[in-house]
Amino acid sequence: MDLLRFATAGSVDDGKSTLIGRLLHDTKSIFEDQLDAVERTSREMGDDYTNLALLTDGLRAERGQGITIDVAYRYFATPRRKFIIADTPGHIQYTRNMVTGASTADLAIVLIDARKGMVEQSRRHTFLVTLLRVPHLVVAVNKMDLVGYSQEAFQSIRDEFTAFATKLNVPDLTIIPISALAGDNIVDRSKRMPWYEGPSLLHHLENVHVASDRNLIDARFPVQYVVRPQSTRYPDYRGYAGTVAGGIIKPGDEVVVLPSGFTTQIAGIETADGPVDEAFPPMSVTLRLADDLDVSRGDMICRPHNAPVPSQDIDAMVCWMSEATLSPGQQLAIKHTTRSARVLVKTLQYRLDVNTLHRDESATALGLNDIGRVRLRSTTPLFLDEYRRNRTTGGFILIDEPTNRTVGSGMVVGVE
């Protein structure tokens, strides 16, 4: 079975946690003692129904306020596929957590309250999903039970969202009317909405094609760790461990190591289960090279004639996640794949309005949850691809060194 990572998004109280709880419940992916605990907590909170949102809202502050604050990861499987869910918060002050949850997703579910329609946070999260290049987007029009399962209400939201999506890069869009609380169109097709002829949400999740979404052309292997057992059994063993970020790598392939530029061949590929004949994203493997080269953490193994661009000048879209502003002249640390450096913010080209997609070129700084195009200069060359080509080698995070807090995430638009 293959694996699908998906994230929920949308405004606060649109039902993201309830939807995930319903998926876990209806696919029988929770234990009886977990369900008993949720039922008991629901009664203690005064609810006259089982509040399935409690399955993901585990923090005391989340349960007390009825909101999601942190990203909650849950796992379940069906006979067709395994799933990893990232339940992300809807409040605007926790947008940075939503970016974290969606950054590794193959699919995003944007929930919209059928009573309210699209709101600012719906547009913000949709734009962020497309900016993060999540390949598949599902719009779940939730709480259809509160509008009498009205076809007109669903079509109104569908038309509004489709008009907004035409301004964005949405390669695959599916819109489904659901009721997470009542279970309509979650696992099985709902008889209360006979006018809807599409699939249920789970059927779509089980069948959406994701195998071709990853870059299998450009071989990229950021070295994370040098394996030297220092044992009598393996006296001369030297391997380079990491996660394949792109392409297909096989024993015998000619490769180049950056930044040194020395070429060699792949002598072998090993995993925790033993040697393999090939490696591809997102496998974690150890590579052995035919020659003894100076290779360390942060180096990149790739093809001699298909290598990322080593560059110190970065043109990127940045999602700013700190209360302190980002402005030209600021110095930050950058983490790109397994390589770390320092960067200088050279210029802020524009700040983007997520509602109108207007570019404010007069902006002088980025505030909390702002998105803008920024030019950076790093102290050492980074091995970059454009984000649209490779989400791993085209993405990075910015870190405030005095506090060691992640203050921004970036997507490479261009390199020099």
Explained architecture:
With 416 residues, the protein is of the alpha+beta class. The chain folds into three domains: 3-207, 3-Layer(aba) Sandwich (Rossmann fold), CATH 3.40.50; 220-302, Beta Barrel (Elongation Factor Tu (Ef-tu), domain 3); 309-415, Translation factors (Elongation Factor Tu (Ef-tu), domain 3, Beta Barrel), CATH 2.40.30. Helices cover 17% and strands 34% of the residues. Strands 7, 8, 9, 10, 11, 12, 13 and 14 form an eight-stranded antiparallel β-sheet that branches. The chain has a six-stranded mixed β-sheet with strand order 2-3-1-4-5-6, with helices on both faces. It has a six-stranded antiparallel beta barrel with strand order 15-19-17-16-20-21. A hairpin with a 6-residue loop joins strand 17 and strand 18 (359-360). It is globular, with a radius of gyration of 23 Å. The protein starts with a strand and ends with a strand.
Keywords:
416 residues; alpha+beta; Rossmann fold; Elongation Factor Tu (Ef-tu), domain 3; 3 domains; eight-stranded antiparallel sheet; six-stranded mixed sheet; 7 helices
Distance between the termini: 41 Å
- What portion of the residues fall into strands of 2 or more residues? 25-35%
Task: Compute the CA-based radius of gyration.
Answer: 23 Å
The CATH superfamily label of the largest domain reads P-loop containing nucleotide triphosphate hydrolases
Task: Tell how many strands the DSSP assignment holds.
Answer: 21
